[in-house]
Design brief:
The protein has 81 residues and is an all-alpha fold. The chain has one domain. It is built from three helices and no strands. Helix 1 packs antiparallel against helix 2. It is rod-shaped, with a radius of gyration of 21 Å.
């Protein structure tokens, strides 16, 4: 097998891998920003019961935690009015 062709294929694969990685990182960042936005703008809906609201906030917090964010008690209890 020709070493030059192998090197060209490797270089092309590496460029494709880097491009894919960059797209994935942007997508991940957008997901993190969206999760943060949803957490901070969440308000209780007019027909929502307090338990459902609390569970929704906890779910949003859990989503953020799974993405590597630190959430303390102050953030969980902050005024959302």
């Amino acid at each position: 097998m020709n070493t030059s062709n192998t090197f060209k294929k490797y270089t092309l694969l590496k460029k494709c891998g880097n491009a894919f990685s960059n797209i994935f990182e942007r997508h991940t960042l957008l997901n993190k920003l969206e999760a943060r936005r949803k957490f901070y703008i969440a308000t209780m809906l007019a027909d929502e019961r307090i338990l459902a609201y609390t569970n929704r906030i906890r779910q949003l917090a859990s989503t953020r935690k799974s993405m590597g964010f630190e959430i303390d008690d102050k953030e969980m209890a902050m005024d959302r009015s």
